[in-house]
Model the fold of this input.
Amino acid sequence: MGSRQSIVVPVRLDEKTFRRFARFDMLRLRKRWVKPALFALILCAFAFVALFSRRPQSGMIAAVLLAVGLGLPIVYVGMFLSQVNLQAEKWKLGKGRPVYTVTLRSRDFTVVSDQKAGEAVTVPWAEAAQAFRMRGCIYLYASPAKAYLLPDGQADAPDIEVWNMIVSHLGADKCRQSPLLKMKDKIS
Done:
C-alpha cells in the first residue's frame, strides 16, 4: 500500500457493471434464488407423485403442478432481471455516467454524489459491513443494504492498491475476492 494517505475513485458506472453487481447482490450474496428453487423442487416432487398415483386426472394435476412449479420461479427471475434493466435505464447508465466519488482514507471512506448536491456520506471503517473484489469491480458495502461500486481502472491508484487499502482498513475477515483474481494477483 505504501505511504498513500488517500485514494480517490471518481466512479463512472455503466449498465454492464450495474447488472453484474445486481446479479451478485441478489442471487449470490443474498441467495434470493433459494426459495424459488425450493418451491420448484417441492411442486415438481408433488407432480411426480401425482403422475404415478394412477388416479383419475393425475396427469392433468401433474402438468399443472409442473407448470406452476417451474413457471413461477422463471417469472420471478425474469421480473428481477427486468427490474434491473429498468433501473439502469432510469439512471441513464448506458455506456456510463458519473455517479459518485469515493475517497478512501486511513480512518474512513467518504462518498460524494455527482447526482445530488448535498453533504458527503462518511463511513468509518469500523462501521462498514464488507467488501468483495469481483471481475471488473470492487463492491464496498457501507451497510448490509448499501454498497458502493468501485469499477477497475477508475481510481488514482492501481486496482490492487485500492483493494489492499480496503482490506487493510476493513479487515481480511470482512473482505472476499474472486478466486480467479487471487490467482491473477499471485501471477502478477
Remarks:
- The first helix runs from residue 15 to 29.
- The mean pLDDT is 89.
- The longest strand covers residues 97-105.
- The two ends are 16 Å apart (CA to CA).
